[in-house]
Design brief:
The chain has 393 residues and is an alpha/beta fold. The protein is built from six helices and 32 strands.
Length: 393
């Protein structure tokens, strides 16, 4: 390690304000000069938290990462043209990306509480990994590259629309908390997940047709799911909307489907036919399971509804892989009279419940107990368990 006097000697050898002086001051090593006065750096450059009002050296190429966080930069003039690693200029009062890199092979991070950026003009032409512009002042995505190598983050911006968004996202696309009223103009292809929760969406028109992983549109104002992606590889989460119908859902969901906390949802009409993972519809106003999915691969969860019958339960449901949860529904008091996981099959197959008259047959209940070799309960005991239904012989 160099001693203090050695650093002082080096300092005196460089003219203040020269490229060498700045490189010495900012501890930039392994650099070479170019004819245009710029430098190439073999390795990383970190000039964060240096109270810089501008980037003081003209960079051309940095083989590693270029970090200039927590300064007072208003633009990116003198930033490298090409960067082999990531670029980060967070927590700067940026008003423009002018002078920024053209090619970033790693991540590209802009934003932070003091960022004043209103436009993405002069964005890189290529970003190999993540593009993160969360929490800036931008009102449009115009100026973005056409393609992002991995994830795109533009959450917590007052966008209103996705006009100008990259068309191809090889990873995830995040546009939460953006005051969005439409998805028109957004990406056309998303290989990962698409997250647009906590906006002002009343329609899903404009959503990508193909989502490689999950689609999450919770906490909007959707009344139905028309315009949904046609293919969703994993999960579809549409909780906390104003859904009255599931019309528009894809035919098949690869993972979980969740439409919980839609208080006005009283029917499963339009739901996916096949759900590879769990099906969750809790805290809605369902009175029947009719029109629900025909096949569910994992748990089927409909707690806290108004179900009085279980007709419509999936024909294909593997009780070895999933559980049926129906607590806090009127029908639950009948369901628990048959203490086995497959109670629902016997309730439906034997016609135990007369939904129209809200009656339960004690005779049929005895037949089920006999079939399952379960000890009988007295009429008085069963009647004491029923508050929504009348027990008949």
């Amino acid at each position: 390690m160099k001693k203090y006097w050695e650093f002082i000697k080096e300092h005196k050898e460089h003219k203040e304000g020269s490229v060498e002086w700045w490189c010495w001051l900012l501890r930039i090593n392994n650099y070479t000069h170019n004819e245009d006065g710029s430098i190439d750096v073999n390795g990383d450059v970190d000039i964060s938290n240096q109270s810089l009002n501008e980037i003081p050296i003209k960079f051309n190429h940095v083989s590693g990462s270029f970090i200039c966080d927590k300064n007072y930069l208003k633009n990116l003039v003198n930033a490298p043209n090409t960067i082999g690693g990531k670029f980060s200029a967070t927590v700067n009062p940026l008003t423009s990306l002018l002078g920024g890199p053209k090619t970033v092979e790693g991540d590209y991070f802009i934003g932070g509480g003091v960022c004043r950026l209103e436009s993405l003009e002069h964005s890189p032409e290529w970003i190999g990994r993540d593009y993160n512009i969360t929490d800036t002042n931008i009102t449009t995505l115009k100026g973005c590259p056409e393609k992002i190598g991995r994830n795109f983050y533009c959450s917590s911006n007052d966008l209103g629309t996705l006009d100008g968004a990259p068309k191809i996202i090889k990873g995830d696309f995040y546009c939460n908390y953006c005051e969005l009223e439409t998805l028109v103009g957004g990406p056309e292809e998303v290989s990962g997940s698409f997250l647009c929760k906590s906006n002002k969406l009343r329609t899903l028109d404009g959503a990508p047709k193909h989502i490689g992983k999950s689609f999450m549109c919770s906490k909007n104002y959707l009344e139905n799911l028309k315009g949904s992606p046609e293919h969703i590889g994993l999960n579809f989460i549409c909780n906390n909307n104003k859904l009255t119908s599931l019309e528009g859902s894809p035919h098949r969901i690869g993972g979980q489907f969740s439409c919980s906390f839609n208080r006005d949802l009283s029917t499963l009409l339009g739901s996916p036919r096949v759900v590879g993972g769990a099906f969750l519809c809790e805290n809605t106003n369902l009175k029947t399971l009719e029109h629900g999915p025909e096949r569910v691969g994992e748990d089927y969860v409909v707690n806290n509804n108004s179900l009085v019958g279980l007709n419509g339960f999936p024909y294909y449901f593997n009780f070895d892989k999933g559980f049926f949860f129906v607590a806090n529904n009127p029908v639950y008091e009948v369901y628990r009279l048959i203490p086995i996981p497959k109670a629902i099959e016997f309730i439906n197959d034997y016609g135990l419940i007369n939904i129209e008259d809200m009656e339960v047959s004690y005779t049929i209940l005895e037949e089920i107990w006999d079939q399952l070799d379960i000890g009988h309960r007295s009429i008085e005991t069963v009647e004491s368990k029923l508050s929504f239904y009348t027990l008949v012989d």
